[in-house]
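In this supplementary section we document a worked example of the pipeline. Step one takes a protein sequence of length 194 as its only input; no multiple sequence alignment statistics are reported here. Step two produces a three-dimensional model, which step three serialises into structure tokens for compact storage. The input and output of this example are shown verbatim.
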Amino acid sequence: MAKRSTGEGSGYNKFMAAVTGLTIDDFEGLPEDLARNHELVDGELVDVSGNNGQHNLFRDFLVELMRPFVREHRLGIVIAEQEYDFDGNAHGPDVSFFNESKRPLFDPKRRVQRFVPDLAIEVVSANDTLDKLVQKARRYRACGTQEVWIFSVETRQVFLLSADRRVILDENDEFRPEIIPGFAIRIGDLLDRY
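The serialised model returned by step three reads:
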């Protein structure tokens, strides 16, 4: 159950500063205007707003490329900004994929899915630090996500964390998620669009 301070004052900022100890169920029950652009990290709401147009277009481009391939081969679901329960923390990777075996677990009425995706993709935004994204990627992996890709449009680099690999890729390498067999595109061809 959330703890709230009893100090004077009201308003959104004071509410946000005073809420601690939230659970996934508490987060699920928040009004949309409070939950929007926030993730739940260690019981506290963390602001994740600030994506610019380049970030959003690149995220959407990844979805547009991946979704038809995944559908055609009946591999699962590709979705943007879907939140998942990572050991009591609610994170919404920019793009995620989960395989067909998890489809029955997906509840389209829930804000936070009670499983983790097989693939999580983060796109570095102006408000991100690499340290925070790597920390988030490690959490994803520790909770069962098989592959995490972090794209930096600015540096034209991609960081891959999986069970077998922890590498930095450049534009001459391929974005080739192992859990989406047959899907591959040169990283430079992706980044050249943005």
